[in-house]
Amino acid sequence: MCDGSNEVPILSSGITRRQLQRFHEDFVIVDIREEKEFGNDQKKKLISGIVNVPMGVILSSGIKGQKKTKGLLCCVFARISHVQEVTMTCLYVYIFNKAWRASEHSKKLFGNKKKICFVCPRGTRADLVTRWYNANTAFDCYTLKGGYSAFDEPFAKDDDWVYVVVLAYGEENPEKVGLALNLVNAGTAKGKTSTLILMANAVWLATKSFRTKNQFKLSDTFKPWEEQFANLFSKHGQLICCTSCLKERKINDDDLIKEAVKMQGPDLLVIKFFLIPKKKKIEMQKKNVLIEGKKKKSKSITHEL
C-alpha cells in the first residue's frame, strides 16, 4: 500500500512529514512562530535548514492591509541586496517578485527552490498563512500537516485534514459521478484537504478528449460536472488517476488535463467513502493496512450508494 511519501501534492496545500523529509531539498522551510517561541526551542532541530520568519503580521492584520504591505515590499526589493539571512521582507519579495528571484543574491539565500513549506507547532497557524499566500500569489506554498506534532505523533489521526473520495464509475453511472463530486466538494467547503481518486472508467473524466465531446450530463439534482471539478481545483483539491486504469484504457499523458496526477496504488489509508462496486468494497474492508511496518486495521467508513 502506498503511503503517499513518493508524491508531493500538486494542488493540495498540505504535505505530510514523510513527504517533507523525502523532498526536503525542494523546499524553503519556514517556521512562522514568533522569535521568542523559536529562540530556545528544541523543535527547530527536527528539521534541518529551517529558518524563522514570524508571520504574526499576517495572522493579526486584515487582508486589505496586507495587500498594501505586499505592494510596498515589491517596490523595495533592491534595498535588501545586503541581507545575509532570510527575513520576512526578503521572503515576501522572493515570492512576489520574479525578477529578484532570478538574482544571484536570491539564489544565495534560497537556492533554486520553487516551493515554500510553513511550519508551526500543530499546523493551524501555518495553514492560515499558507492559505493567505496561495490566495494572493501564484507561488507554491504548503503547510506541514500537524506541524511539529507530526514528528512526536506519527500515527496520529489526520481526519481534520484529509478527505478522500474514490470513484470507479464514469458516464455509465451519472448519479454516482454526481454524488462523488458533491462529497469531495463538501470536504473542501469544510476546509479539509480533499482528494478525488479516479479508477476504472472514471479516469475518462480527467481526459481532454472526453471533455471536448461535452456530451456527458448530470441530472438537474447536481451542478454541472465541469463546474464541480473547477470548484474542486479552485480550493486546492487534488485529482488522482490510477496509473493501471489509464494503461488499461490506453490513455496517454498528453490526453490528461493538467490538474490530474497519476499514482500507482493510490494511498487509501484515510478513505471515508468508497463509491465502488460492493464486491470490491468488501474485499478492501477485509485487508489490513501497513503503516511504517506495523499492522493497523482500517477504520474506513463506507457508504452504499
TrEMBL record:
Protein name as annotated: Rhodanese domain-containing protein
Domain Rhodanese: 23-157
SUPFAM superfamilies: DsrEFH-like, Rhodanese/Cell cycle control phosphatase
InterPro entries: DsrEFH-like, Rhodanese-like_dom, Rhodanese-like_dom_sf, Sulphur_relay_DsrE/F-like
Pfam family, one: DsrE
